[in-house]
Amino acid sequence: MATIINGVTTAQDIKDEIAESVRQIKEQGGKIPHLAAILVGDDGASQAYVGGKVKACEYVGFKSTLKELDADIDEETLLQVVDQLNDDADIDGYIVQLPLPAHLSARKVTERIRPEKDVDGFHPVNVGRMVKGLPAYVSATPFGIMQLLERYGVETEGKHCVVIGRSDIVGTPMSILLSRKSKPGNCTVTVCHSRTPNIKELSLQADIVIAALGIPEFLTGDMVSEGVVVIDVGITRVPDATRPRGYALKGDVKYDEVEPKASYITPVPGGVGPMTIAALLHNTLLASKKEIYQ
Q: Is the pTM value of this prediction over 0.90?
């Protein structure tokens, strides 16, 4: 029977550790970490996510600032707001909530953020530092997965990890982090994607599978071997008339089929997802201590 990797309790552990760090900073008369967020428009999911970040800041003792902007804001005005946060010495880190309205360039906005305040870890400088193995802000989902593997004592050294999906947000950074000479790490990594013709053949060879392609229940029981470690990054709303909200949340893994064969597995929801805010808080604490960029 698989060990269920619980992202809810692990994220709570990380938040409690951060709260203790903030308590010590206050005792010593140090600067309280300050996280800001820019929210453009009124997308419900984005509002809920940013609201969760504000509550998490309150819990750990951070200061927080939320800048809510109209959906029809022009790009130059948005970039001016980014510049203001760049220049505000009291704000240690900030995020621009994505996705942005279609008329705004996420790339331009992301690249305008100063790397030392880019606690989302999306700026090319932070990505490049991560690739080079230098201190960097690692983006939320890859950071969360690495924490889950470490805190559950999942052995990665010498293992074959198959990453299904090659996005800039998850698949590509995970392949780099797990292949590095580190713990967790030292994996032999295979990256599969939409043009990989033999995904099943490769996933059957895997000791660890990270499913991050956004197709509900893609990874089925016949695609994994006994004892596999499965990290499910996907979360998709699938219509379900029997549910009160009219939909069910499904991961990229067909859980009922894969769980009996797995040694460790993350559920959806409650696995990787809860780790994202914990990662953001962790990066903000690092930013406030100036530990990445001296």
A: yes
